[in-house]
Amino acid sequence: MKLYFMKKEALDILKSNLDMVYNMYFTEKDNKWLWKVCGGDPFVEFKEIQDFQLAPIDSDMSKGEVEFANCKIIYQHLSFLTESQACDERLWAGLCHSVYYDYLRKRWDYDTKSPKTQKEAVSNIKSRFFFSGGTRAGLFRNSIAKCWWVGRNTYDPSNVANPFEKLDIIGSNDISSKISDIFYSNNFSANPVILNGIVKAFKNFKEENTQLSLKEHIRPTLQFLNAVGGGVVLDCLDEDEIADMLIDNIYGILQGDEQGVEIEEESEEYEDMDVDGNDISEEENSEDSVEEEYIVIGQKVNVRIKETDEQKTILVNYLPNSTKIPPLAKSLLGCWIGDEVPFQGKTYIIEAIQK
Q: Helix, strand, or coil here: 45?
């Protein structure tokens, strides 16, 4: 089995002309059309390895299960790749257009369906067959590259019995969305301790036979962790501390609390206090407020209570000499300007985020 890089010239020709050739991905059963479009052989041989087969796309498995299985298969057989090689768009574009061309067409139903619109088809082909949105995005969007990188980040050679136990715990359901949330959107995979903490939290609920929803439980909790990471150096926490943080938040969601908030009787006691317990005036720093992408630990947030039109400034931080965050402040973590946050019968509208 020969592996191929795509020549830089061919890659540039294809990506710059996708508006005109995108339909070929749907109509052409093999890749011979590439020679005509690129004006010659678009590939350069990289390496010859022992043959291996991907999980069959036309089996009884769902496409998510197939992709999940291929995370293991692709990394196991291509684990010799260096990080530099595995970050090279030419490698993955070469594989997607050569040995895995048929697999990708079936994976995305290009063999049975027609493109809905040119714009949608071009955008999808760019992200599935090439890199789109930069190198980092490409690693977890390209149909083959993402399998290798997920396999690499979850493979544990010290676990002789099951080196892919972490991946098994993450599970095959909603695997594409999990790859986006865990490995791309939040970049937790860059730190194995954080990833281990996430997996340990998942394992806790798996052992309890508690079914978690990606949309209702996992995604909001990862957003919470990401928001906490804006004010706390997560790299300084161990995997048990990360796991406990996530488990507590998921339990809160399961119990019906807003975004995993712990509802306490004194929930509004610290609304207008800073980390030292001093009152924060509504005018303080209001003119210097700066919009952030979302609320993280350590920020002051200007809110308006929808029902009374009352203005408040809330410090999103830990209580003095404590590791707890006031419940209202905790409910604001990860939210954006303009969001409406329901809390104990009131609706808090986020109007500004201060540094």
A: strand
Q: What is the CATH number of the domain that holds 305?
A: 3.10.50.30
Q: Considering the domain boundaries, does residue 121 fall inside one? A: yes
Whether residue 64 is contained in a domain is answered as yes
Rounded to 5 degrees, φ, ψ at 295 are: -80, 135
In degrees and rounded to multiples of 5, residue 117 shows phi and psi of: -140, 155
Classified as helix, coil or strand, 90 is: helix
Cα(66)–Cα(62) distance, rounded to whole angstroms? 6
Print the domain residue range for 308: 286-354
How far, in Å, CA of 201 to CA of 17, rounded?
46
Q: Quote the DSSP letter at residue 283.
A: T
Q: What is the number of other CB atoms lying within 10 angstroms of the CB of residue 265?
A: 6
Terminal-to-terminal C-alpha distance of the chain: 55
Distance of alpha carbon 95 from its chain centroid, rounded? 24
Separation between Cα atoms, residue 274 and residue 161, nearest integer Å: 50
What would the DSSP string read from start to end of 188-205? Answer: GGGSHHHHHHHHHHHHHH
Per the structure, the count of domains in the chain is 3
Same domain, 52 and 111: yes
Max distance between CA atoms of the chain, in angstroms, equals 73
Contact 267, 258 (CB under 8 A): no
The pLDDT of residue 10 is 97
Is the same domain home to 184 and 226? yes
C-alpha distances out from residue 350 to 39, 163, 215, 290, 292, Å: 56, 45, 22, 13, 12
- What is the C-alpha to C-alpha distance for residues 343 and 267, in angstroms, rounded to an integer? 10
> What is the per-residue pLDDT for 187?
66
Residue 70 contacts residue 103 (beta carbons within 8 Å): no
Identify the three-state secondary structure at position 216: helix
Q: What is the DSSP letter of 258?
A: G
Asked, for residue 276, whether it belongs to a domain, the answer is no
**Mean pLDDT for back-to-back runs of 10 residues, the chain (355 residues):** 96 96 96 96 96 91 93 97 96 97 96 93 95 87 95 95 95 87 76 91 92 87 80 77 91 69 37 38 38 68 91 80 73 83 88 81
125 in the same domain as 8: yes
